[in-house]
Amino acid sequence: MTSSTPTQLAIGAHVDQTDPVGEALARGTSIVQMFLGSPQSYKGPVVEYAGGAEALRAAAEEAGVDLVVHAPYIVNVATTNNRVRIPSRKLLQQHMDVAAEIGAKGLVVHGGHVDNKSDDPAVLEKGFDNWRKAVEATDIKVPLLIENTAGGDHAMARQLDRIARLWDAVSAAEGSEAVGFCLDTCHAWAGGIHLGDAVEQIRAITGRIDLVHANDSRDGFDSGADRHANFGAGQLPPDEFVAVVREAGAPVVCETPGGATEHLADIAWLREHL
After folding, report:
1. Where are the chain's structural domains?
2. Which of 25, 55, 67, 229 might form a disulfide with 216, Cβ 3.0–4.6 angstroms?
3. What is the mean pLDDT of residues 244-260?
4. Among 113, 184, 176, which residue's Cα sits nearest to residue 144?
5. What residues form DSSP beta bridges with 110?
6. pTM of the full structure
């Protein structure tokens, strides 16, 4: 995904996967994100689009719509729990394979966490190293975009220092050039990252921002609560929120509540403020 000026930014939304091309057209956008099945299930990915993966790929290309896939929330390749980590790696590969089949521009996955009850540095380091192993174990066919998360004391990608340690580990993996970063504005705010210099700080760590999840936040700064709100209806300082989108210069996906009507309002709000 390439950077753009504010007037050229692709601004889309997370939509139902039954007809993502139609959902994109209903929002007047050239980019949409979707799940491939339940975000809370270890069952493999499914393509609900009529005609299957090939038909969806063809329809998206014909309409000029970029597709992004979001991996299930339950994927956690960082954990030291084998009963979660091993099926998570399998599920990640399955979604990677299908994302490639539909011609997706990227696969977004949360940074995950380790399950220890204490702040044992050795356990945290194991979590970061598990990410390195996961990158090396995955046949990365489309860009794998790691997303910062809002909560959790033992999260891999909540605070800037954790993101830095995660990126050090990922960068040491063979195949790391295919790994990118997805910046979520609600998660950053709720996770204790100041929006004023968030883009500068994250770029200094990762060297890149490939996708922005533009979301207002229902809850306060450093609350740890992952509760999205429509633009202007939450607690993000509007100027700082818009500045993140502008400075990142990456394609934007709104994961805000509602359907096409609400997303059209959010997209219009963002374009007006940009």
Report:
1. 11-273
2. 229
3. 98
4. 176
5. 147
6. 0.95
